Amino acid sequence: MVSIDDVKKAQRELKGIIRQTPVLTSALLNEKSGNRIYLKSEHLQKTGSFKVRGAANAVIDAVRKGANYVTAASSGNHGQAVAYIAAELGIHATIVVPEDVNRAKVEAIKAYKGEVVYCGTTSAERIPRAIQIAEENTGFYVPPYDHPDVIAGQGTVGLELIDQVPEADIIVVPVGGGGLLAGILTAVKAAKPHIRVIAAEPEMANDTYLSINNNKITAIHGTTTIADGLRTSQPGNLTFPILQKHLDGIVLVSEDEIKRAFQFMLERTKQLIEPSSAVAIAAIFSGKLETADKNIVAVLSGGNVDLHQVKNFLTESSTV
């Protein structure tokens, strides 16, 4: 299992490669939620999401061991991150994406000099293809979440935010495959175990919720949730035990709740975040946390939005 020492090592490795993202606040968010809300703004990270942390940590280690070719399976953000760090290190990257991938994310992968291969619509389809390509080219496959270096890299978000918001009571984290959540849990529960860490997940992509309730990894079929970064089929074999051990709760949110949170953030705070990030805000607005007058950190995991799709993320109903 990944340890706090692994996360601290990753933080040293990533110094000068990733940026420490800011924590933003909003008086209106505080008023609407009845709590003090802090926004850990990974949508302002290099490549537009937290994914560069884990990808860079894994690729740096692979290159140190002799790799000169990497592949990844990704709905977009992980692929951008792998392509970016590969280009920075001067090696080739092939990214296997779903056929319905976000157009903006594909263009970004190509801008980072990554080769794009399309395969299916689920992680269960694209992961084997990415592994196959790596094997055919004697390369290194960089998992999107289920790898110790990836989890440790994502855990650096946790180290940063507990320094930035030392008074935090609760941290709300979007969950797909669980890499970000597992990394944050590893860091936070070792340093400040009293802080509650809550997962936020779309109702339409509830594999983590089902897995926690069933006490075993439980897969779901393909999903069309607008939170495309959270469209995993199941939690990872490495991430799930960490969630089982440390997670304090999980909140499911509807597509309409995600849309209202996305629209609120865009209209009222002027932050363009992905629907996957909006899941954390939706969980806070849902009232399911049953909190008042608490210091809550919402992790905004990414901001890579296809502007042509924004109209599909809006709602005609009230934004809160």
UniProtKB/TrEMBL annotation:
<dbReference type="GO" id="GO:0000287">
    <property type="term" value="F:magnesium ion binding"/>
</dbReference>
<comment type="function">
    <text>Catalyzes the anaerobic formation of alpha-ketobutyrate and ammonia from threonine in a two-step reaction. The first step involved a dehydration of threonine and a production of enamine intermediates (aminocrotonate), which tautomerizes to its imine form (iminobutyrate). Both intermediates are unstable and short-lived. The second step is the nonenzymatic hydrolysis of the enamine/imine intermediates to form 2-ketobutyrate and free ammonia. In the low water environment of the cell, the second step is accelerated by RidA.</text>
</comment>
<dbReference type="InterPro" id="IPR036052">
    <property type="entry name" value="TrpB-like_PALP_sf"/>
</dbReference>
<feature type="domain" description="Tryptophan synthase beta chain-like PALP">
    <location>
        <begin position="17"/>
        <end position="302"/>
    </location>
</feature>
<dbReference type="GO" id="GO:0070179">
    <property type="term" value="P:D-serine biosynthetic process"/>
</dbReference>
<dbReference type="Pfam" id="PF00291">
    <property type="entry name" value="PALP"/>
</dbReference>
<keyword id="KW-0663">Pyridoxal phosphate</keyword>
<dbReference type="GO" id="GO:0030170">
    <property type="term" value="F:pyridoxal phosphate binding"/>
</dbReference>
<dbReference type="GO" id="GO:0005524">
    <property type="term" value="F:ATP binding"/>
</dbReference>
<keyword id="KW-0456">Lyase</keyword>
<comment type="similarity">
    <text>Belongs to the serine/threonine dehydratase family.</text>
</comment>
<dbReference type="GO" id="GO:0003941">
    <property type="term" value="F:L-serine ammonia-lyase activity"/>
</dbReference>
<dbReference type="GO" id="GO:0018114">
    <property type="term" value="F:threonine racemase activity"/>
</dbReference>
<dbReference type="GO" id="GO:0030378">
    <property type="term" value="F:serine racemase activity"/>
</dbReference>
<dbReference type="GO" id="GO:0004794">
    <property type="term" value="F:threonine deaminase activity"/>
</dbReference>
<protein>
    <recommendedName>
        <fullName>threonine ammonia-lyase</fullName>
        <ecNumber>4.3.1.19</ecNumber>
    </recommendedName>
</protein>
<dbReference type="InterPro" id="IPR001926">
    <property type="entry name" value="TrpB-like_PALP"/>
</dbReference>
